[in-house]
Amino acid sequence: MSKRHNYGFETRMIHAGAQPEPLTGARQTPIFQNTSYVFHDADHAASLFNLQTFGFIYSRLTNPTVAVLEERLANLESGRGSTCTSTGHAARLLTFFAFMEPGDHFIASTRLYGGSITQFGKSFRKFDWNVTFVDVDEPEAVRRALTPRTKAIFVESLANPGGVISDLEALAAVAREAGIPLIVDNTLASPWLCRPIEWGADLVVHSTTKFLSGNGTAMGGAVIDSGLFDWTAAGERFRALNEPEPAYHGLTFHETFGDLAFTTHAHAVGLRDLGATMAPLHAFLTLLGTETLALRMERHCENAMKVARFLAEHEEVAWVSYAGLPESPYYHLAQKYLPKGAGSVFTFGLKGGYAAGVRLVEEVNLFSHLANIGDSRSLILHPASTTHRQLSPEQRQAAGAGDDVIRLSIGLETVEDLIDDLQAALERAAVAARRAAE
Amino acid sequence: MQSMKHDSYPDAYILGILRSVRTIAMVGASAKWNRPSYFAMKYLQEKGYRVIPVNPGQAGREILGEKVYASLADIPEPFQMVDIFRASEAAGEVVEEAIALREEKEIEVVWMQLGVRDEAAAERAEAAGLKVVMNRCPKIEFGRLNAELAWGGFDTQVITARRRKVRLS
Predict the structure, then answer these.
(1) Fewer CB within 10 Å, N- or C-terminus of chain B?
(2) In this structure, are strands B131-133 and A81-85 parallel, antiparallel, or unpaired?
(3) What residues in B contact A226, CB-CB < 8 Å?
């Protein structure tokens, strides 16, 4: 699949974007803690402002440290270019901002991260950007939800938190037929496990806060463009990219920049006006994370599989939703799209229901009770009372975050310690739930 | 001359061209500042190349300080590369002209811009001893191989632990 690359993934996760700094020879990427850049002369400044030459103006638009991470993510995702942002939320806003107009519509999966559902369903409506949530397990249902104003289809490759996998190839076919881009949130899989562009996705978004940085240190987001979507052929629905841009004296992005258009627009217009820029320090920390991405993901997946098997056989556990288990309805999709492992974030339900669930998150000792995923540490959460709290009970159920659900993000600790910790906490939670029932 | 596979070019082949060429005849150069050819011409000038615009509609005028000629034959001095900013259908004719003028103008390279391809013309040019690049932009390739393209967040596909030489004055 990666025939376009001359080097293997592990080589590229360390080297892509990061040549030795030519002036000093510094081997590790320097943190350019700097806001603005000196022009050679007035003509050079004019060329930069006209987008006629490559170079830096102001760190709201581009920064040398952030650019290294952008190239690395574009490379690892098999994309043309990428744009880093302050958070994953900002990456989604920046992506839709490139082509949505008031009154426009897009289709999104019912099983998204709760923060995405709230952003799309509530805040985006203030811009009159209208979403229809659809069960994307049925590509036909997606087709039926298309309207003349539909601009995109948005799914997660591996959904948070449900252990659900989207059939990317089938959805890419629906998007291609409709002449609109397929946008895939690849946060939970990471490019080591799945590369949506190789399955037909046009744009990929990330919360880099998760597995890419990997240590719970730095907020960040990114949108990676495949460079393959034909914005011009898609016609007047994508005016921002294929009609003259007044703020750049009538330059037409897709005509002038070709497959560089989306990423150029995302910096020169998106970050210019939305201002949701990634900090250079955060780019540096995320670069450190990507250097070990494959190694960490392998261990994350290995540990997650062992914990999922343990839970599936535990008498206090009602069900486990992990796509790596053969009994999962998404097992066959996992084998196709994530053959190296089904990630390390999944959910399970306790027979003791809500009461046992709340007790469990308080009884564990090694698992950190917090609202994040993709850390080197193992994390535990009760989504119904935290990340998915803003959703209705129906939305929570649809998102795989019902009242009895516990979400785990399995870390890199000794897996026997994690299993022992869960075993002890499950026993104590069950006793407490029985006492509460009596 | 060994004929190239035109789906992917080794970096060394493109770098060899960009390092040896000093003067470029740009066929289809536009006088409008927001056109792609104007962007490419301005960038290549900044990088030290002499770019001579060829555009019959602008002949006798100036673009970016350079006199515009109606055809390659009209250019009164040598140039090593012809950069074709025309539709694929029009590329063949320009290639024929370049082949005919190869010795007189010291032409070494025929370069067709992003989106421009003419396999038959490429074969004829190679048979005549010219190097050929198709469906690429010299600005993007120069930027890519000198790490400038990466500043905009793009994948250059360049993986190296070698320290790039910086020319100091």
Answers:
(1) C
(2) unpaired
(3) none
Q: Tell me which residue in B115, B137, B153 faces A81 most closely, judged by beta carbons.
A: B153
- Residue A2 has a pLDDT of 42
The string of DSSP codes covering B80-103 is SEEEE-S-HHHHHHHHHHHHHTHH
Edge-first strand order for the sheet with B109-112 is: B50-54, B23-27, B81-84, B109-112, B131-133
Q: What pLDDT shows up at residue A259?
A: 92
Among the partner residues B33, B143, B153, nearest to A71 by beta-carbon distance: B153
* A282 vs A431, residue with greater confidence: A282
pLDDT exceeds cutoff 50 at B1: no
ipTM of the modeled complex: 0.91
Taking an 8 Å cut-off on Cβ atoms, the answer to whether B46 and A263 are in contact is no
**Architecture of the domain whose range is A9-289:** 3-Layer(aba) Sandwich (3.40)
DSSP letters of A213-226?
T-SS----EEEEE-
Is it true that A9-289 and A293-437 share their CATH fold?
no
- Domain ranges in chain A? 9-289, 293-437
Residue A330 confidence (pLDDT) above 70: yes
CB A206 within 8 A of CB A185: yes
Residue A1 has pLDDT above 60, yes or no: no
Compute the count of residue pairs across chains A and B with CB atoms less than 8 Å apart: 111
Kindly identify which residue of chain A lies nearest to residue B10, measuring between CA atoms.
A6
Nearest-CA distance A3 → chain B (Å): 12
Kindly report, residue by residue over B34-91, the tens digit of the pLDDT.
889 999 999 999 999 999 999 999 999 999 999 999 999 999 999 999 999 999 999 9
Nearest chain A residue to B38 by CA distance is: A52
Among A22, A251, A267, beta carbon nearest to B166: A22
Q: Which of A86, A75, A93 is nearest to A290 (CA)?
A: A75
- Checking if the pLDDT of A35 tops 80, the result is yes
Instruction: Output A260 or A401, whichever has higher pLDDT.
Output: A260
A293-437 folds as Aspartate Aminotransferase, domain 1 (3.90.1150)
List the single best residue of A53, A84, A249, A251 to mutate versus B (max B Cβ within 10 A): A53
- Site from A5, A9, A19, A208 to mutate, B interface, most B CB atoms within 10 angstroms: A19
